[in-house]
Amino acid sequence: MKEFLMLIRGGQDKYQSVSANDMQKHMEHWQEWMAGLANEDKLVGGQPLANEGNTLTGNGKTVTDRPFAEGKELVGGYLLIKASSLKEATEIAKGCPSFEYDCSVEVREIAPVG
Questions:
Q1: Going along the chain, which residue ranges are E strands?
Q2: Are 98 and 76 in contact (CB under 8 A)?
Q3: What pTM was estimated for this model as a whole?
Q4: Helices first, then strands: H and E counts in the chain
């Protein structure tokens, strides 16, 4: 099995305008989806990310702190999964609950080191 990273981007505008009841349903969908991945031994880990962060440039000498302004570019979370191929990982990603809020999911294989 190979490992793949799913980067979940966007949807911040829609998430902010959701009712508490709808957000609860959405979180339950996430829990069900991730439990299914865990039961299949496909889930390695994953977490939501805070909107605030730092960007280092100039060989690490310049630090820009920010909330990331562009909601469609904001990485809101990640998942690390196991799959046999990019095709399988992509099929798994199609079930991501974040699509309910117009997010995008980028699927990338973790490259072996060495």
A1: 2-9, 43-48, 52-57, 62-67, 75-83, 104-109
A2: yes
A3: 0.85
A4: 3, 6
Task: Tell me the C-alpha distance between 53 and 108, whole Å.
Answer: 22
pLDDT in tens, 84-100: 999 999 999 999 999 99
Which residues, 6+ apart, have CB-to-CB distance to 110 below 8 Å?
2, 3, 4, 5, 80
To which residue do tokens 């060495």 refer? 114
Domains plus CATH for the chain?
2-109 (3.30.70.1060)
Q: How far apart, in whole angstroms, are the C-alpha atoms of residue 37 and residue 61?
A: 41
Short-list 48, 45, 60, 1, CA closest to 23: 48
Mean predicted confidence (pLDDT) in 10-33:
86
